[in-house]
Design goal:
By secondary structure, the chain is an all-alpha fold. Helices cover 61% and strands 0% of the residues. The relative contact order is 0.12.
Length: 205
């Protein structure tokens, strides 16, 4: 009985390689030829489709891989064991350090995906990344609400608007990383933007 040729590549590594390509180039700008080349020499279109089903399906797997690994750097936003200011600062620092690691493309795939070109038919592919941005934004708001509830921050509209400032800064790190702004300067900038939290502090905190 014929069982077919065994797969000539590591599927997990192939998904990781595809993730790096999509991360670097976006969805539409990553071609099937680029994906096949990243997987290894000799892979044919039939082999590719047999392994992954479609480019869209591989993108979904790549996004899932990213969200389960690199995107976890902002989870301290939800860590109730950390004081709210520390939780926010830790998430910003973790994200900045991840975005500059040499083992993968610069920046954050979640943030960069807001700029990905994508056909109308493929827009739904970006929804998990959009949802991740929304969750991070909610996490920042959560830290601020915790600060207000603990009496550390003033309870007013200006304090709650800090969520937009911190979220904008976090999204902007991707551009800084891509433009080769040194990591140590970004880390100093994190210290500076955290002063916005201190300016909103109550007199008793």
């Amino acid at each position: 009985m014929k069982t077919g040729r065994p797969r000539q590549f590591d599927r997990e590594e192939a998904v990781k390689s595809a993730m790096h390509l999509f991360w670097q180039n976006g969805y539409d700008s990553t071609s099937l030829a680029m994906l096949k080349a990243s997987i290894g020499k000799g892979i044919t279109a039939p082999s590719f489709y047999a392994a992954f089903g479609s480019k869209e399906a591989l993108f979904n797997e790549a996004v899932e891989c990213y969200l389960k690994t690199h995107a976890q750097v902002t989870e301290p936003l939800w860590d109730e064991a950390l004081p709210p200011r520390d939780a926010l600062q830790t998430a910003l620092r973790n994200s900045a350090q991840m975005q500059y690691e040499p083992s993968h493309p610069r920046g954050c795939m979640v943030a960069l995906s807001a700029l990905f070109t994508c056909s109308t038919e493929s827009k739904s592919l970006l929804l998990p990344l959009e949802n991740s941005r929304r969750r991070t934004r909610e996490g920042i708001r959560h830290c601020i609400e915790r600060g207000i509830a603990a009496g550390e921050l003033q309870d007013n509209r200006s304090t709650r608007a800090l969520a937009v400032s911190f979220d904008s800064f976090l999204l902007g790190i991707s551009t800084l990383a891509r433009d080769d702004i040194p990591l140590n300067e970004v880390e100093l900038a994190i210290d500076q933007i955290m002063q916005l939290w201190d300016f909103a502090a109550t007199a008793d905190s």
